[in-house]
Amino acid sequence: MVKKILMAKPGLDGHWRGAMVVSAALRDAGLEVIYLGNQNPEAIVHSAFQEDVEAIGLSILSAGHIDLIEQVVDCMRKKGMEDVILVVGGTIPGEDIPRLKEMGVDAVFPPGSKIERILEYFKQARKRSDEPTAGG
Amino acid sequence: MARQAKATELAGKLLEGSELALARLISLIENDSASMSDVLPIIQHSLGRAHCIGFTGPPGAGKSSLVNHVTRLLREKGKRVGIIAVDPSSPFSGGALLGDRIRMQAHSLDPGVFIRSMATRDSYGGLSRATGHVIKLMDAFGMDYVLVETVGVGQVELDVMNTTDTVVVILVPEGGDSVQLMKAGLMEIGDIFVVNKSDRPGAEEIALQLQVILQMNARYAQNTPPILLTQSIDGLGVDKLVDALRDHRKGLNGAVLEARRKERRKKEFEETLAAVLIREWRRLLEADPGIREKLALVLEGSTDPYSVIEEMFPGGIIRQNQE
Lengths: 136, 323
What we know:
Oligomer: heterodimer
Number of helices of chain A: 5
Distance between the termini of chain A: 18 Å
Largest sheet of chain A: 5 strands, parallel
Helix content of chain B: 40-55%
CATH topology of the largest domain in chain B: Rossmann fold
CATH superfamily of chain A: Cobalamin-binding domain
Number of strands of chain B: 8
Order of helices and strands of chain A: EHEHEHEHEH
């Protein structure tokens, strides 16, 4: 189960309710949520690096998701953060989802996604190879 | 013993300046503070260089924004800054929303700044239990300053006093009348007091009242701490705060600073002792059915803890090693 996640809105996206609703639900499910608000991709990834989170959640409603996620994935690769879960929510058209997954996104939650499904995802999700408890 | 090997390896890399090692070590210590026993011997000699400053005050007083401005001024002087921003965990779910970093975005890509958010988890003193350890990690990493921002405190969450070198208490003009200021607790722990949001009405008055009240306190009999007016929206007055921080650090001459750090080490020792005791107790509990039966009496409420402890350990729990 994911315990610590960073939530952010890349770019100049002014919408905040979706990110807040999901952040509050994750908090109530027992996760520690670092809420970053608006930031550019590089700063999002660098913050996630310092916070040593297991997952990054992005909320995008600006239609710029392909470009923005490309930049986020690129920054993550440069920092050696391939083992961090990357999740995207917002107005993502269905036909873009396969491409996003191919780019390295682990899960996409388009409009209409149930909160329960998102919580269930984080309960099951486990990607980090070096959990602190492993072998200890 | 994979955990031990990992902690040792990370501690070595920390001293070489690896940011990744710092990030990972903080997680390791946060999840299992016993790992610090593997890290401390390696970093012990690199400790005590950073000036550690606590920022405390009620929720919404502007702690994060002030930390942001102080960081900006310290960076202009070329100092490296570590920031620990603590926010509360839910007593119900254990979850937390950590929102301090959002006020410090100006520094998010600055290689001379390392910001870490921490939830209080099972602690109620305004800091997370691991905070003291994380300060040491940032100190060993080579930070000149470690700024610790507590959760928004009320009147009794005073851990910060025993964890940092300099305590800044941040108040706002709406903080209440002079009776509020006279209450024990928060008003006694500050080395520097700040009235933030000083553009609002009542700021000068509260600063004046504060001065009168601090002068009545025996703790401040020798010298009244500085009381500064700031506006963290535009950084007004923060330069004076940075000067006051420097002056306080200078005033902490060898003897005073060492006394303060000694007091802190004593508290750390006692906390470690308590943790070790509880760990051994749990081991005993698992191994000994007789002990479990006695504990059951306490759990069902039919016996009080003191009587059971007395019965189980008639000679006291800690016995000295006799030659």
